[in-house]
Amino acid sequence: MSTASIVKTRAGKRIDAWRWGGRIFLVMMLLYTAVPMAWMLLTSIKSGFAAMQLPPQWFPNEPTLASYEKLLDPTNSVGQDFLRFFWNSLFVSTTTTMLAVAVAVPAAYAFSRFDFPGRKFLFFAVLLRNMFPAVIFLVPLFILMRLLGLVNTHGSLILTYLTFGLPLAIWLLKGFYDNIPYQLEQAARIDGATRFQAFFLIVMPLSAPGIIATAIYSFIGAWNEYIFAYTFLNKNEQLTLPVGIQRFFSENTTDFPGLMAASFIMSLPVVVLFLLLQRYFVRALTEGAVKH
Amino acid sequence: MTMATGLADAPLEVKARRFGFLRQAWTHRSDYLYVLPAIVVMLIVIAYPIYYTVELSFFNTPPSLQLRDKEFVGIDNYALILRSDVFWRVTANTFIWTLFSTVFAFILGLGSALALNHEFFGRGILRAILIIPWVISAVAASYIWKWIYHSDFGLVGAVLVGLGLAERPPNLIDSVGTVLPSLIVVNVWREFPFAMIMLTAGLQTVPDQLLRAAKVDGANAWQRFWHVTFPHLQGVSTVTILLLAVSNFNSFIIPWIMTGGGPSNASHIWITHIYELAFGRQRWGIASAYSVLLFLILMTLGYFYVRALSGGEKKERVA
Amino acid sequence: MAHVVLENLVKTYGAFTAVNNVSLKVEDGEFVALVGPSGCGKTTTLNLVAGLIPVTSGEIAIGDHVVNDMDPKDRNIAMVFQNYALYPQKSVYKNLAFPLQMRKLPRDEIDRKVREAARVLDMTHLLERKPRELSGGQQQRVALGRALVRDPAVFLMDEPLSNLDAKLRVQMRSEIKRFHQDLKATIIYVTHDQLEAVTMADKMAVMNGGFLQQYDSPAQVFAHPVNMFVASFIGSPAMSLIPLEASTVDGQTVLTGAEGWTMALSPLNARKVQRSTTRKIVLGARHSTIKLAKNASPNAIPAKAYTVEPTGDVTFVQALLSGAVVNISVPPNVAIAPDEQIWLEFDQERIHLFDGATELALKAD
Question: Is A111 left (phi over 0), alpha (psi -120 to 50) or beta?
Answer without folding.
Answer: alpha
